[in-house]
Predict the structure.
Amino acid sequence: MRCRLQTLVQRKFKILLLFLLLSALLLHLAMDLALPTARRLWSSGGKAPKGSGAMAGSPLLAGPKKLSLRILQDFSGSNGSVERSSHPQGAGPKIKDPGVQQQRGDVNRARTKGSKLAALFEHPLYNIPLPEVTDKDKLFVVNPMEKFSLQSSGSDEWVSSSKAEAILPTGKTAYDTYPAWLKFHVGINRYELYPRRDPLLPTLLHDLATMRIVSSVQKSGGTQLKLIMTFPNYGQALFKPMKQSRDQETPMDFFYFSDFERHNAEIAAFHLDRILDFRRIPPVSGRLVNITKEIRDITTDKKLAKTFFISPAGNVCFYGECSYYCSTEHALCGKPDQLEGSVAALLPDKTLAKRRSWRSPWRRSYHKSKKAEWELNPNYCAQVRQTPPYDRGHRLLDLIDMTVLDFLMGNMDRHHYETFEKFGNDTFLLHLDNGRGFGKHSHDEMSILAPLQQCCSIKKSTYLRLQLLATRPYLLSELLREALAADPLAPILTEPHLRALDRRLGKVLAAVGRCLARAAWPGEVLVDDVGPWV
C-alpha cells in the first residue's frame, strides 16, 4: 500500500513539473512574438516623404528606420522639442561600444607615405584633442546587443541578435556587423560629424560610388532636381546631377539665387571642409549613373517617371519637378544614358535625430534690387552679438568658420544652416547644400566675408590653419588637388578654380590682418580655442 502511494505521488509531481516547464516555454515564445510587433509599432510614426511617389509601407522607405530604431537606443534632445521615444530618458543601456573605438583608430600611415594630405593631418594643428565624448555628447547611444544582418536584399526585415547567431567571430563586436552608413551615423557627436582620422571614410565613399542602387525617387522641396537613392543595405544618398561642364563659369548677369547647382561643387566642398578641419559636411563622392537602369527602370515616383524622354540625338533625358530648371528646355541628358552626379551620404532621419534650421543673420535679400540690413549697416555685428544664440558660446565663431568656407568656394547662397537639436546651442553647424559654390574662378565676392569683416573675430585655431595652408608644402590648392584626384569623376575642379583658392585664402588672411591692426591686443580678434596645445 505504501509503495503504491509513493508511486502515485511521484507521477503527480512529474506531471506538475512538466506542466510548469511547458508554461514557461509558452510564455517565452509569446514574449518573443510580442517584442518585434511592439517595436514595429514604436517605429510607425515616420511618414514617407510627400511627393516621393513611393508607398508609405514600402520596404525601401521603412527599412532604414526599422534598422536604426532596433540598433539605436533612446536619445534625448534639448529645448523640449525632440521626438518622443518609447523608453524614458536614459532607460536604454548606455555602454560604450568597444567596436567604435577599435575601428575609429589611426589610419595606416604606410599607405599615405609621400602624401601632402597625410602630412597635413600629422601636423600639430590637426591633432588638437577634442573634449572627451560622453554618452550625452553622442547623437545616438548604441545598443551593443543588436547585430545587423539582412535576411535578403528584397526583404524589409533584418535579423536581430536574438534570431541570428549568438556568437560573433573572435575579436568582433555587434558594431562590426553595421554597414558603413550606420557606423557613420553612430559616430556623430557634439563636436564633429566624423573623426579626423576616420578609417570608415574610404569605405563609405566607395559604397556611395559603387553600391548597387535599388530605388531612385525625387526629393521633395528645393529649387532644383535632386534624387534620393537607396542601396541594398538600406543606406540612402542624395544625388545631384551634372548641369554644367567643369570649365563653364556662371554668367556674370546671373543672380546668385538663379545659379545652377553643380555636382562637382558638392564633391569639392566636402574635401575642402575636411582640409580646413571643420568636418561639418557629410561625405560626398562622384558617381557615373546609368539613367535607364539606375533611375528610370527602378523608380516608384510616378511624377518623375512621366518626365523621361529620348532626345533627338538618341540620348535618355529627364527633368523631374522643381522650382527652377525642371522643363524639357533644361532636361538632364545622358551620353547616351550615362550621367555624372554627386552622391552624398544622408544624415540620420529627422524622426530619429531632430535638426533645427537657423536663418543666417547675414542672409541675402534674394531680391533683384533690395539689399539686406547687413549690407547697409556697418555696425550690424553689434546687433548680432546681442541676439541669442550669438550672444554666448562659440556660435558666432562657428558661423565665421562657415563664412570662410563659403568665400573660398565663392558660395553666395547660404541663407540657412542647421544643427542637431539634441546638443542645443553648444555644437557645430552643418554645412549643407554647397552646390552653388565654385561657379566663378575669375571673381572673388568680398561681400561673403561680411561676418568676418564686421565682427573682426575668428577662432585662433582656424586662423593658424589658414596661415599654414598659405605656405608650402601645405598650399591649399595642392592639398585639394590631391584629395580630389581620388574621386571616381576626377578631375573635379579645373586649374583656375584651384588657383583661385590660394588667391582667396590670401584675402581672408589680409582681412584678419586689418582687424589685428585695429585691435588693442590680438585676443580681441583671435579667440583662443587651442589653449596650451599650440
Notes: Residues 182-345 form one domain.
